Every structure is written in C-alpha cells, then in structure tokens.
Amino acid sequence: MNSTELSEANTSVVLSDKELLLLADKIVEVIEEGKQTLAISINDTIKKTYWKVGQYIVEFEQNGNARAKYGSSLLSKLSSILRARVGRGYSRPNLNNMRKFYQLFPKCQTSDKSDTNFQTSDKLTWSHICELITIDDDLEREFYTKECIAENWTVDYLHRQKESGLFMRLALSKDKAGVLTLAKKGQQVQSPEDVVKATYTLEFLGLPDKYKESQLEKKLIDNMQMFLLELGKGFTFVKRQYGMTINNVHYHVDLVFYHRILKCFVLIDLKRGAVTHKDIGQMNMYLGYFAKEENTETDNPPIGIVMSHYKDELMVEYATYGMDSNLFVSKYELFLPNKTELRKLVKGLLSQKQ
Questions:
Q1: Which of 168, 332, 189, 193 is nearest to 254 (CA)?
Q2: 303: domain CATH number?
Q3: Are residues 329 and 222 in the same domain?
Q4: pTM for this one?
Q5: Residue 201 forms beta bridges with which residues?
Q6: Is residue 169 part of a domain?
Q7: Structural domains in the chain (count)
C-alpha cells in the first residue's frame, strides 16, 4: 500500500458516519443555495432581456412613421427575422407579451441593485408576468402583483385567483377608499371582516348537480389545498367534524380552522340548501362553546361562518340581530363567477363620490 492509499485508509477510519453525514449536509446546502442563486439570476436576466426587447419595439413604433409603414404586420415580420437568427422563443405572441411587459411595467427588477431602472420583485417569473399582462385594469393588475409577491403564489395559483375574480369579490365588500387600498397594498388582515368573503367560489370540487352535505364536506377535505387558497391567507386546518358535548348532547362543527394572523379559531358549518335561523342559532352556540371551553388566554374570540348555497339576506339580518359580530353567513358557488358583471359592479363602486 502506497502513502496515498494509506492516508485515505486512515481518514476513513477517523471519520465517523455522523461526521460524514454532517459534511454531506453542508455540501448539499451550498449546492442548493447555488442552484437558487442561479435560478434567480436566470430569471432576472430573462425579464431584463424581454423588457428591453419590448422597449425597442415600442420605441421603434413611436419613431417616425414606423407604425404607418408596417402596421399590424410589424411583429410578424420581426418574429420571422429573429427566429431565423436567434432561434425559438420569439414568436409573434411572445413579442407582443414583451411589448406589453414594457408598457405595463415601467420598472423591472434584476439582481443588479445599482440599476435603479429595474425594481420589480424577483419573485415574479416571466410566466407570472405573462399572466399579469393579460389584466387590462391597472388596479386589478396591481393587486394580483402585490399578492403574488407577498404570498409567493405559483403561476397556477395566480391563474386560478384571476379566474375566480378574487380582486373584484374582495373589492365589492369595501368602499371606494378600501378598493384603492386593496389594489395598492394587497389583502390586509386586521379584523374578522377581512378574512370572510361574501361568496366563496368552489368550482374546483367538481360536484354533480345533486349532492349531499356529506359529499360537499368530503370534497372539501379531498381538495383542502385549493380550499385553503380560496379561504385566503392565514388559515390552517384543525379538524373535520369537531366534537363537543353540552349537557350530554353531542354536537359537531363541520370544519374547524385556526387563523394564525388573527389568532383565533374559525368554525365553518356547511349547508346544502338555504340557511335557516336555526343554523345561525346553532353556530352562535358553537362560538360560545369555543370561547369558553377551547380558547386559551392567547386566543382571540372565535369566528363562525355558516356557508350555504342560498342566502336570504333579510332573514339573515333578522336572525343575527344583536348576535356576536364574529358570526357570518356566506354563500358558496360551484362555478366561476361572471367576471364581466363583477367588473361592472366594481367600476360602479369606484365611480361613486366620496
């Protein structure tokens, strides 16, 4: 055995398996950090490149008679030249996306902090940008941009929230000033009213026309990730059919969550048909039980949501008179909302005088 082999043999004896695993952990950690840094760098480079391509196209269109000369054929002709010279990725639709990117996002961040012209979060990938530029309304687009950054939404999540009209559904529960704040700051959670929607969109359940409450509950459990997304930020699932006994009578809340921002339990009872005054009274009893028996000193008062397919507004108003303000009655829909109608309602709200 030569000196090198002897040295390696001695090393293998000295190093324990635990030490070797710790060494491997450190190497894996630095490799993962390197991959992440590389991914951020690539993402920044792609966005900066596409933003500049968009800038050149817009400036060319605005210079002299370029628009009159080429008209709508500009992007098609440019795409043919670019694909022949630099390859795929520069189709007419992609060039149009780059053009809109420059127009709708005057600033775009890169990892170069000295470049003050680029200041959009690196959490937004090019795929996020392609989703966001399809939104024509500035306030709506600003809201989804803020939420993507704050909540680390994937592109699929962003697409789903757009399709469900999240911004407009939240906006309809606010006044004009509240809508503007929602757009500029994203969804702020400070009170129970901020976490409860008037209508929940559950199109992802794929339920048939005729179904039972038990089926609805099971589908929500099976699709908990999507349901948590629809509920909004801060919700964590606790238990299904949460049991409680009052004077030897057993009761069960359909779904119990805990809200980590508001620091309180959130109780949800599901109703297949229209909500009744008995349903509201029962939820009020559940809230009382949780406040007295389940809450700790650090917990805030619980929130109750009776979620039904139909809602009689007048009956709900009378049935909740004088009750806990943390009790809400919301509707759920099994299909995506009509975004055109929602947008009209929001515009009407914004056009109102203060």
A1: 332
A2: 3.40.1350.10
A3: yes
A4: 0.80
A5: 333
A6: no
A7: 2
